[in-house]
What we know:
Elements: H1 2-10, H2 15-26, H3 31-37, H4 47-83, H5 102-116, E1 120-121, E2 127-129, H6 130-133, E3 158-160, H7 166-174, E4 182-191, E5 203-213, H8 218-233, E6 239-246, E7 249-258, E8 275-284, H9 286-291, E9 300-306, H10 308-316, H11 329-332
Parallel strand pairs: 1-4
Antiparallel strand pairs: 2-3, 4-5, 5-9, 6-7, 7-8, 8-9
Bound molecules: adenosine-5'-[phenylalaninyl-phosphate].
Adenosine-5'-[phenylalaninyl-phosphate] is lined by residues 149, 163, 165, 192, 194, 200-201, 204, 206, 246, 249, 279-282, 303-305, 307, 309-310, 321.
Cofactor: Mg(2+)
Domain Aminoacyl-transfer RNA synthetases class-II family profile: 102-334
Subunit structure: Tetramer of two alpha and two beta subunits.
Amino acid sequence: LRDENQQKIHHISDLDELNQVRVSLLGKKGPITEVLRGMRDLAPEERPKVGEFANQIKAELQANLQERRAALEAAMIQKRLEQETIDVTLPGDEVVAGTPHILQQIMDDVEEFFIGQGYQVIDGPEVEEDHYNFEMLNIPKDHPARDMQDTFYIDSQLLMRSQTSPVQARTLEKHDFSKGPLKMISPGRVYRRDTDDATHSHQFHQIEGLVIDRHITMADLKGTLLALAQHVFGAERKIRLRPSFFPFTEPSVEVDVSCFRCGGVGCAICKYSGWIEVLGAGMVHPNVLTAAGVDADVYGGFAFGLGPDRFAMLKYGIDDIRSFYQGDVRFLRQFQQEG
Ligand code: FA5
């Protein structure tokens, strides 16, 4: 019984089989139990010998089973370790990393420039009140200037903001001038009922700028915008201010950058004038300051609103604004940032 079963135990190949063998050998119906049970039929002097012998075999078989179990478990662990080994010489899978959208890159660049000049970055709501988008900016109801920015209304009081200028009004209302001047920019999305074409989108971006203090002049505005143009478009750039009209600034200007696509000689992008229009700006109208509770006799300053979409088009020579919004990765990958 012992030799035969030791052989058998030695050849067990998995834990299930081992369990079956253990039950059949040592269980209630196994041969050893049977021998021990049959002892009552033996002569009393034989019982201790037979009992001792049966128990010894039982202990040996138990030890053999235990040993086999340990060996099988070790082999299983070994096998799993081998299967899970990483071959560091295999070629790796490419990790597809995203990158900030080209418009985000331009906005980050403009933001960085202004943060470096001590401006705060302020957010405003995209769903805006008529009050801030128009009234506080010197554009009362029925004023013809409302037609300049055809607007998506939600109801008679609420609208999708058509410009980032309402953030000027909101910030002016809250700013405490006893604590110092106000210098802020506000980037964000704006909406207009414009028909989409190569240079217009019904949803685009603006970055508003506002500086209010006691002695701000138009020269400060010009110097700021020249430094910005040179930062974004290159140190060779010049700017040109042309008279314009916005209800919330007086005087108002449109600002052109010298064309860098054709070196000022003339090309389709600058319409052969050597200059490209990039933003609107001006000296903040006293009515805007007064409406926000700021003393217009003491304080004044400049404001501007630029379009990062147009900035990106000019910087990279992109001829259709819709490319920014179609999400075509073949287009977007051209502007992948390193690292
Ligand atoms: C304004 O929206 C004024 N709030 C700007 C301003 C701010 C003036 C502060 C004075 C003081 P305008 O409508 O011109 O102005 O728009 C400003 C810029 O937004 C334009 O120069 C242009 O770059 C961009 N822009 C305007 N309409 C669109 C459009 N449909 N698609 C893409 N960009 C546009």
